[in-house]
Design brief:
Layout: E1 6-12, E2 17-22, E3 34-36, E4 49-58, E5 65-71
Length: 87
Amino acid sequence: NEFVFGILDSYDAEAGRFNVNLLEASDKLIVNQPITTSGIGGVYATGIEVGVVDSIRNISDGIGKVVVVKSNVNFDDLRYVVVVKLP
């Protein structure tokens, strides 16, 4: 498997989409491709699917790309959440 790492930048509640800034230039991503947690940092588990690629766009004022991710979770229907605290 090949990976493209990114950082979750923002969430658009109206559209139900995350914006993820890629940490490397890549043309490996395609629409409807699954997006999963990386496990980097040791706080979150690796391989939890969080959504799928909805669209990909270039950053207007720099080099890189923003991946718009359609979430697997309907945040309007959450009842319980857990806050993870760093040790």
